[in-house]
Design goal:
With 175 residues, the protein is α+β, with helices and mostly antiparallel strands. It folds into 2 domains: 8-39; 44-174, 3-layer Sandwich (Rieske Iron-sulfur Protein). The protein is built from 3 helices and 10 strands. A 4-stranded antiparallel beta sheet has the order 5-6-7-8, with no helix packed on it. The chain has a 3-stranded antiparallel beta sheet with strand order 1-10-9, with no helix packed on it.
């Protein structure tokens, strides 16, 4: 008759370990769908999640349009001339008085970020159009300057500035 000591491994030890491993994998497989169903779906993330935009490919004087929360966002790399013209305007003469400095982030004066929806009836204005080298809404004739401020037309307010921050000198995070 042979006996085994505790230092030797038996088939029973192997079966205990194998059964424990299978039980652990089975538990994780059963819990995984329950945990993952608590995550928001893709449409929810797209509807409100912040987006990051790379500013490096945007040339001076160029404006691009991206979408955040199903809204068009204009990002304009303004020229020195556009900035000087926007700052030369008497704020008191504007229908919705706001300085250019209040509409951009300090140290990043060349970057204008606005929601591209006309404040009159919700149309989408066209960048680099109109008398002020800003935005022009062809539907009813509202004209905004290069700071997104209303200058002419029926629109009652400036183009809105979305919440954004600079992640680096060449990247912004909107939302």
């Amino acid at each position: 008759m042979t006996t085994s000591t505790s230092a030797e491994h038996s088939r029973r030890d192997f079966l205990y370990v194998a059964t424990g491993a299978v039980a652990a994998v089975g538990t994780v497989a059963a819990i995984w769908p329950l945990v993952s169903q608590m995550n928001p779906d893709a449409s929810t993330i797209a509807a409100g999640a912040p987006i990051e935009v790379d500013l490096a490919p945007i040339a001076e004087g160029q404006a691009i349009k991206v979408f955040w929360r199903s809204k068009p966002i204009y990002i304009m790399n303004r020229t020195k001339k556009q900035i000087e013209e926007a700052r030369a305007v008497a704020v008191s003469s504007l229908p919705d008085p706001q300085s250019d400095q209040a509409r951009v982030k300090e140290g990043h004066d060349q970057w204008l970020v606005v929601i591209g929806i006309c404040t009159h009836l919700g149309c989408i204005p066209i960048a680099h159009e109109g008398s002020y080298d800003g935005f022009f809404c062809p539907c009813h004739g509202s004209q905004y300057d290069s700071s997104g401020r209303i200058r002419q037309g029926p629109a009652p307010a400036n183009l809105a500035v979305p919440p954004y921050s600079f992640a680096s000198d060449t990247r912004i995070k909107i939302g």
